[in-house]
Amino acid sequence: MNEPKKITVEQMLARAFAIEREAQARYADLADQMLVHNNQELAELFGKLAEIEGKHATKIKQRAAGAELPYISPLAYRWPGSEAPENVDISVAHYLMTPHHALKMALAGEQRAVDYFEDMAKVAADGAAKALAEEFVEEEREHVALVKAWLAKYPEPPAGWDEDDDPPMLQE
Amino acid sequence: MDATPMSEALTPRDYKSDIKPVWCPGCGDYSVLGSITTALAELQLPPEDVAVVSGIGCSSRIPAYANTYGFHGVHGRSLALGTGLKVARPELTVIVASGDGDGFSIGGNHFLHACRRNIDLTYIVMDNRVYGMTKGQPSPTTEPDWAESALAPGGTGLRPFHPLVIALASGASFVARAFSGDLLGTAALIAEAIQHEGFSFVEILSPCVTFRPDEREWRKQVHPSPVEPTDDPARAARRIMTDDGFNTGILFSGERSAYAPARPEGPVVEPAYFEAEFAV
């Protein structure tokens, strides 16, 4: 449970892997929610985001070049927020949400990842770990730019997007 | 960090089943499920050594979504089922899940006596202050002036049930409050509750975004308890009675020995053993 003060290359990789894997799981959960609630467009979008995060996780595993990453228990990561940085906030999901909302959530997650690795670079154990953290910062910045470009295709929907004349649940 | 390689460790995902939850998107119960699976992964408990038992209601769907043993029981009786299971199979980690309607109304009497018995259970109540599954009626913890339900025009006018005080007064040896929006903070509390010997009660404020959209504001209202947990029930009672209802953290952690009835040695007790005890 005790967090090392200085982060090694292996620990940095373990953190990066956990971030991507958790983001993948979160997007997959949201895809399931949207599928269950018949928002097909969002189910596909969240599914796509899960797939992308899965590829990022695989890439990080490959970076480890076969070396076993150290186990860090879920609470020992001590993420700066209430979850891993790239996890989008599940509590703001809505069954009528649009791609604009989903991509704004994704953008915020990618930005948190940039901030996280910037902080990790400051606590790197050595030059190699610092260089790796900085590399992750650059990668996450690229993701921010990609999501921004994606988001530009989906303008903010007008107010009232969450109003439903025939809601699945009516107050009694 | 420990010496276990990452590839051999159980992750929160390993404790989730393949069944897709049907809760409304935005429901706090998704995060509670995440907190439970994270706590189990933190403790690296083998899934086959864990049972999640529930009653009826939105929150009580949770055993289906956990990749552990599970029992989706009858309304208000989750603690009776959990107690029976723990007595018969004390080696299992038994987590009992409920909601404010299931746990404090029809299940209220079981709640009192589960606290009193202090059997080594972890009782998680997802409190959204409304009956969600039956479409939004006031529950025992609903505010007296909440007037959105047609069944209670103008609000119930009734003083809400105070589960933490009741738990403390009834003898629970661990009392905590959490907020579903803090997934890891809640997971840490659940892990502590599981490790605590005796009856551990964790009230989780878990918004119902469909019938209580106002509860989305809870995120701004919750705050960590400013004081350390106490083992003095009188002090804990004073704190809980006078707090704003949004203090999170361990509010009481006592040392009363957990009750475990005498039983023969060995992991499995045949039902006949207990039947003989209760024979008239």
How would you portray this structure in words?
The complex is a heterodimer of chains A (about 170) and B (about 280). Helices cover about 60% and strands about 0% of the residues of chain A. The mean pLDDT of chain A is about 95. Chain A is mainly alpha-helical. By secondary structure, chain B is of the alpha/beta class. Chain B is built from 10 helices and 9 strands. Chain B has helices at about 30-45, 60-65, 80-90, 100-105, 110-115, 165-170, 185-195, 220, 235-240, 270-280; strands spanning about 1-5, 50-55, 70, 95-100, 120-125, 175-180, 200-205, 225, 245-255. An 8-stranded mixed sheet of chain B has the order 3-2-4-5-7-6-9-8, sandwiched between helices. In chain B, α4 crosses α5. The longest helix of chain B has 16 residues, at about 30-45. The radius of gyration of chain B is 18 Å and the shape is globular. The model of chain B has no long low-confidence stretch (mean pLDDT about 95). Chains A and B meet through α1 and β1 of A and β1, α1 and α7 of B.
